[in-house]
Amino acid sequence: MKAMPPSHSFRFHNLGIGEIQLGKKPEHIPGMLPFPSYNCKNRFRVFPDPAHYHAFSGVAKGTIERDDTGIDLQYLLTGINEDGFINRIFLYPQEANEQLAWRLSQLYGEPSTGKAPAGIKNAWITESETEITLFSPADDKTADTVIAFRFFYDLSALKEYIIEGSTKLK
Fold first, then answer.
1. Residue 124 — left, alpha, or beta (φ > 0 → left; ψ -120 to 50 → alpha)?
2. How far apart are CA 106 and CA 113, in angstroms?
3. Going by C-beta distance under 8 Å and a sequence separation of 6 or more, which residues neighbour residue 116?
4. Judging by beta carbons within 10 Å of its beta carbon (0-12, 13-18, 19+), is residue 130 exposed, middle or buried?
């Protein structure tokens, strides 16, 4: 019988969730694995290359408020820059619903909202110059809901650090 990985509850904040935050080295965070060692690596195509990514290996939940029931995360991936610091965080909720943007707004304020080719994008810019985006797919069953963090002025994190699900992630 395979042992269940430990469950972790992380609190959302301006730099990420819990200890998993922008500007930190992933090898200093318990549960983070280099992407090539990650069990679910075949579900994703990552750019610029797998060496620039880490994945959380445990069961994770993100909480927004103190008494929050939390958002169960199916996948939690981070991109690292050339210096080895986290420059992108990608959170894939197990179940996404229309209230997710509202819940994130409780913490980050009113988002800017726009339509993307396959869904809706909500974005928040925090006082610490972090951009948090929530992409919610329309009716496209091949796309997934993802919450992403990056420093607003880090354009290489936006343009070069991309994750594509190779199949529907459920």
1. beta
2. 15
3. 135
4. buried
pTM of the shown model: 0.91
Encoding tokens for residue 151?
């420093």
What per-residue confidence (pLDDT) applies to 1? 45
Q: What is the mean pLDDT of the chain?
A: 88
CB 22, CB 87: distance < 8 Å: yes
Kindly report the length of the chain: 170
The string of pLDDT tens digits covering residues 72-88 is 999 999 999 999 999 99
18, 11 Cβ separation under 8 angstroms: yes
Q: Which one, of 147, 151, 24, lies nearest residue 94 by Cα?
A: 147
Give the three-class secondary structure for 15. Answer: coil
Q: Could you identify the residue written with the tokens 């919610």?
A: 136
